């Protein structure tokens, strides 16, 4: 069951329309706080901020084309240890929502007293590109949506966003939609759950009847994204085919583990690679060097990536923040996205599609993987 309503947009200011919606949630005490991207005083970044005072939403910009942190990590930090009787609305992009769902299954996020508000997403810039535009005196949001409305290719949009086939929320309580909507005049607000529908009805939002146009717009966007995704997969498959190609790809890895730390799915309290298992005395290194005649340092860079792939490939949501975190441009996103897609296809699993869908690597089914001969 769903219900569709809309927010009226005045003077083309769609961001202000969403601010008004969030302010009403707080003003009517429907929630106690809102987690939403807010522009920093300098204007040089837009980051998730927990807001309890409606007046502090004046700089909220949930459509800002930047993703400094996947907010699933924030919700995990806030709810994993202890939940609250106070209610929070969390405004998230689709990849963040999907990561939240995966972490709920892993018992790293609790959705008790959390209202999920999902946004359509045309893509995001890297933090560095966002900052560069600001320093050049240009609004990143205006730059982004000017390209969208004119139909121009926005070359600053991150590769991960260009190949994302889920640019729309699939698992939120409330969806705020841009696709198939004349955002100069209105924004769609769709209640996807009983909680979401109740909030929309309480606020008395007017009914919206543009569902068919929206679905048509989504289908067109997804079709283009899938073409781009398949092109990336083909190139990546060629670039890493065989050890003679794979090994050089990771040559610039310095074992900083930034990709792991940025990943919303990696959640282990103690990573194996930061544990005593990988702490060795000097003689051990000398022994290895003597056996091999030369020992690349730091060691185990490829093992680190292969182990991480083994742990999270089935749950990779393709946010691409692993790539953003790499200081040496190792193409970790394209490799992880390719492997993740292959693993997920084997199990017919879409990460983040539903809280009720069991994770394949934590579930045994007798009829699974029959084609490899195990009966």
Brief overview, please?
This protein is an alpha/beta fold and 375 residues long. The protein is 41% helix and 11% strand.
In terms of topology, how is this protein built?
Elements: E1 3-8, H1 14-27, E2 33-39, E3 46-51, H2 71-79, E4 88-92, H3 94-105, E5 114-119, H4 127-135, H5 140-150, H6 159-162, E6 174-177, E7 186-191, H7 194-203, H8 211-239, H9 243-249, H10 258-262, H11 282-292, H12 301-312, H13 321-325, H14 332-347
Parallel strand pairs: 2-4, 4-5, 5-6
Antiparallel strand pairs: 1-7, 2-3, 6-7
Helix pairs in contact: 2-3, 8-14
Provide a descriptive summary of the structure in words.
This protein is of the alpha/beta class and 375 residues long. It has two domains: 3-230, no CATH class; 243-372, no CATH class. The chain is 41% helix and 11% strand. It is built from 14 helices and seven strands. The chain has a seven-stranded mixed beta sheet. A hairpin with a 6-residue loop joins strand 2 (33-39) and strand 3. The radius of gyration is 22 Å and the shape is globular. The model has no long low-confidence stretch (mean pLDDT 93).
Distance between the termini: 40 Å
Pick out the low-confidence regions. none
The whole-number mean of residue pLDDT values reads 93
Helix content: 40-55%
Number of helical stretches of at least 4 residues: 14
Q: Summarize the biggest pleated sheet.
A: 7 strands, mixed
Strand order of the largest sheet: 1-7-6-5-4-2-3
Structural class: alpha/beta
Apparent shape:
globular
Rg, nearest Å: 22 Å
How many domains? The number is 2
Fraction in beta strands = 5-15%
SSE order in H/E notation? EHEEHEHEHHHEEHHHHHHHH
Query: What is the number of beta strands?
Result: 7
